[in-house]
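seq:
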Amino acid sequence: MKIARGQQTSTLTYGWIALGLFAVVAALLGGSSRYDAVQITVLRPLAALFLIPALYFFSREKLADLKTPAMLLGLLALWMVIQLIPLPPGIWQSLPGREPVAAMGAQVGQPDLWRPISMVPSRGYNALFSLLLPGTALLLFAAMGARRAMPFLVLIGLGAANALLGILQVVSGESRALFFYEITNFGSAVGFFANHNHSAVFAALTLLVIAYVMTSAAFAINRPWQRFLLGAVYLLVLLVALVGGSRAGLLTTIMAVAASGFLFRTAWKNQQQTNVREVGRLPVRPGLVFGAIAIGLVAIVGMFAIFDRIPALARVTEAGTFEGLRWILLPVLREMVMTYGLFGAGFGSFEELYHIHEPASLMFPSYVNQAHNDLAQLIIEGGLPAVAILIAFLVWAARAMRDVVRSGHDRLSKLVFWLTTFAIIIFASLFDYPLRTPLFQVIAIWLVAILSVERATAIAHR
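struct:
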């Protein structure tokens, strides 16, 4: 299949190299959501270097298919900048929730300072600079002529490496040698991430991408060695997802496996209508092959469950102090949403703001640095303008999926793939914060870019 329109071979070669190297940099340095992770001091300058090839090969025509995601990302950056503009005292003091800051200013003899909407400007600047990663990833995708195969295969390779590292981490126990971050889930399969939940959700997305690539006729995965290799990677990633300790990861893995089963069944059903596959010299019905694979997967999961090798399954019925805190936080989050939901309190400010609203009953040795509910945190930090940008994106995504489904072959499979992809990310974001890690931002922006290109291709072939 063609992976770029009107691109020269040299550009495509550079595209593979650039996307691959960028993925490696993001993987090795971008797995933590913490603003004070020392890796960020290296990650952002290295990411900025990739703007050189992105701008060198850039043209307006290449960005045409991605103009809506690029515009929405630009609007988000613009709102972050606006939140950092100092305002006259009378204006910022009238904003909801600013009373504590105004009172402290009056006590130290500085009641008339100009202050921005952001209540923690230093965190706001950090959040603004954090857009360098997804912004560069999007520009690089467009400039290098990446279409579908290239970024999908890069993501699969990244997922395979993440799974291999996760296995080594589990085998090594709590040895710090294979863990990249000081604050992490030692002993768990975190892979390139600091949080095992984020790694497990990425594993679920990897399973879904592998199934989509293997079953879509557009990718032409017909050679036995290609299918064997992708199948082996699928089982490897599934194994790591099962031995991980993430409940969110287990649930998203179930979603991914169910969607994968539908994609495989649909692909083999379509093939059955045209011909009978041959394995060796014996004719084998595709339905039997699918059934054997399905039974194998069920047997693997069953064996892990019987021998109590799925830690996340046990954790479904258990709740530690911090895990229960996710639910206890809801009234506090509701109060913060009602207080700051108009214009927001500034991106990145949640951790400091929480101290203002934290009740004495929730003071534990473990502290809260994220809301563990990205929708609530988006409203708290970004207010109604950020919500409007999110709604605009969801409307665009729905229309994009509609256009993709209306054109071409495998319509139902495409719909299942994209709906499940968004469902996994949204579900994980409602109970955690994977999109706040630079690596996951790169993964998500490339998936959005692929959807945008698929939509443009579908419209062009109507």
